[in-house]
């Protein structure tokens, strides 16, 4: 009897032995079969549609600001607020979006963004109905409310691609998946600059434009609510996805103590903020020297169009080579050079070909590193949740974008240029942005030098996956212990 009790006691002690528990956990992880599922492409497509729709709503009115101002009976500066609200909302809402995505998962975060985006688009469309009273600028207040809802939705959608790529895709597909979902946003900016002027020929066409832009938002909303059933796949696609990540608050405390991430935070914010602000004021920069609005549109479209293509190929390259740091440093350095050349050329007349080339190269090199930088942020902060590292990088871009826009507004000089195309009166003083552009050149040059010189990091996520693979090889008691390559189903 006592011997039996002794054996039971010994068995119990073995079950609570931390060494045995660690061994069991390690074997359990080694026995995990890494698998990717076809439905990952559906989820990626849904997120891409939502980012595309949100980008359409961002700049809906900017290409047709004159018709929009007449339709809502407000000044053009009031129409500018319909896009500026996106940058303002992104900062406070960004913290909530990061917390929701990392704490409650992709599904809730994406559905929240899809719902807010759809409601905002519906409210905007409502503002164009005839039964809405025109007193006290009520239609404008309604459309501003709709834009605000869409702006609140943006962080939930814009911060999700990196987490989606890490959660659903294998290591050799993460950068491409991140790129596809992220680049649908600049693709939307490209399309809206073409579609809005094509749709709106007179003030009353604003109603039709708002209905057209409501359609992709409604499709994305329905697909996310009824088609996105789980935040994570049944089996993880990689060893890093199988790991238990830190909580939001743990990750937040950790990233503020990582020097490499701080450099990345400042550098990416400078590049992304500069690119987005230049797109916003490109016409104001070029019209001073007699370049037409049509030429400015070509430059903006070329920046975005060729930039998206470059991002696709850079994502493929990095997925195969894992050269995150090298690609980011080279692209950012060359992008700074191209921006400096563009700034100098913009002070001369009749330089259409040269300006178009350097505008295009600036967009190509800037967007080529966009999604790769998010992946690099994950690598230098792992196991911090992906939405945290990527989200704060995106917020840095929004914050610095606002700063650049303030530079352009308050540091511009007023001059008379006889050849200018900014107004119909050649003798009228116009805003010249050369001074703030030169200041921006100096700032991004400094951030580029600091980043290229001092940014060094280990690829912590890749190292964790390699260690997991090595453990499986060393512990090959069964065939199931070696299942490091994902099964594609």
Strand content: under 5%
The quaternary organization reads as single chain
Anisotropy-based shape: globular
Major sheet attributes = 2 strands, parallel
Structure description:
It is built from 20 helices and 4 strands. It has 489 residues and is mostly helical. The strands form 2 sheets. Strands 1-4 form a two-stranded parallel sheet. Strands 2-3 form a two-stranded antiparallel ribbon. It is globular, with a radius of gyration of 25 Å. The model is unreliable at 1-30 and 476-484 (pLDDT under 50).
What is the structure about, briefly put?
The chain has 489 residues and is mainly α. The chain contains 20 helices and four strands. It is globular and about 75 Å long.
List keywords for this structure.
75% helix; 20 helices; disordered N terminus; mainly alpha; two-stranded parallel ribbon; 489 residues; single chain
SSE blueprint:
Elements lengths: L1 H14 L2 H13 L4 E2 L2 H20 L6 H8 L3 H29 L1 H21 L11 H21 L1 H9 L5 H26 L6 H22 L11 H4 L5 H8 L3 H29 L5 H29 L2 H22 L6 H17 L1 H12 L4 H25 L2 E3 L14 E3 L1 H21 L5 H15 L12 E2 L1
Parallel strand pairs: 1-4
Antiparallel strand pairs: 2-3
Helix pairs in contact: 3-6, 3-7, 3-8, 3-9, 3-10, 4-5, 5-6, 5-7, 5-18, 6-7, 6-10, 8-9, 8-18, 9-14, 9-17, 13-14, 13-17, 13-18, 13-19, 14-16, 15-16, 15-17, 15-19, 17-18
């Amino acid at each position: 009897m006592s011997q039996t009790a002794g054996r039971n006691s010994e068995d119990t002690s073995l079950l609570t032995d931390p060494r045995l528990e660690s061994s069991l956990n390690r074997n359990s992880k080694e026995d995990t079969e890494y698998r990717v599922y076809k439905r990952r492409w559906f989820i990626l497509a849904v997120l891409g549609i939502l980012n595309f729709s949100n980008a359409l709503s961002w700049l809906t009115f900017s290409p047709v600001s004159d018709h929009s101002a007449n339709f809502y009976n407000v000044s053009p500066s009031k129409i500018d607020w319909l896009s500026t609200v996106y940058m303002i909302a992104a900062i406070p809402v960004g913290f909530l979006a990061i917390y929701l995505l990392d704490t409650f998962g992709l599904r809730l975060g994406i559905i929240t963004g899809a719902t807010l985006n759809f409601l905002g688009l519906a409210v905007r469309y409502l503002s164009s109905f005839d039964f809405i009273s025109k007193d006290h600028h009520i239609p404008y207040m309604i459309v501003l409310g709709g834009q605000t809802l869409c702006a609140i939705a943006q962080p939930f959608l814009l911060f999700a691609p990196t987490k989606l790529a890490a959660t659903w895709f294998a290591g050799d597909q993460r950068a491409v998946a991140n790129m596809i979902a992220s680049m649908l946003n600049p693709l939307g900016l490209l399309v809206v600059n073409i579609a809005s002027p094509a749709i709106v020929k007179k003030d009353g066409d604003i109603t039709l434009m708002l209905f057209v832009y409501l359609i992709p938002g409604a499709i994305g909303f329905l697909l996310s609510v009824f088609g996105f059933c789980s935040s994570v796949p049944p089996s993880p696609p990689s060893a890093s996805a199988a790991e238990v990540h830190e909580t939001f608050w743990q990750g937040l405390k950790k990233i503020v103590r990582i020097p490499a991430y701080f450099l990345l935070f400042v550098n990416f914010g400078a590049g992304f903020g500069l690119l987005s602000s230049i797109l916003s004021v490109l016409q104001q920069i070029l019209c001073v020297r007699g370049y037409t609005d049509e030429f400015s549109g070509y430059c903006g479209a070329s920046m975005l169009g060729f930039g998206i293509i470059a991002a696709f190929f850079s994502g493929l390259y990095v997925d195969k080579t894992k050269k995150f740091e090298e690609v980011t440093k080279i692209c950012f350095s060359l992008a700074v050079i191209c921006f400096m050349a563009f700034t100098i050329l913009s002070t001369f007349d009749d330089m259409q070909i040269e300006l178009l080339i350097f505008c295009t190269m600036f967009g190509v090199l800037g967007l080529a590193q966009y999604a790769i930088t998010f992946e690099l942020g994950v690598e230098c902060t792992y196991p911090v949740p992906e939405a945290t590292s990527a989200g704060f990088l995106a917020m840095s871009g929004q914050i610095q974008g606002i700063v650049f826009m303030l530079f352009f507004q308050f540091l511009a000089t007023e001059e008379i240029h006889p050849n200018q195309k900014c107004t119909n009166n050649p003798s009228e003083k116009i805003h010249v942005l050369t001074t703030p552009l030169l200041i921006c050149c100096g700032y991004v040059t400094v951030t580029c030098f600091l980043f290229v010189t001092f940014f060094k990091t280990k690829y912590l996520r890749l190292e964790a996956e390699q260690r997991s693979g090595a453990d499986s090889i060393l512990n090959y008691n069964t065939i199931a212990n070696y299942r490091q390559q994902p099964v594609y189903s």
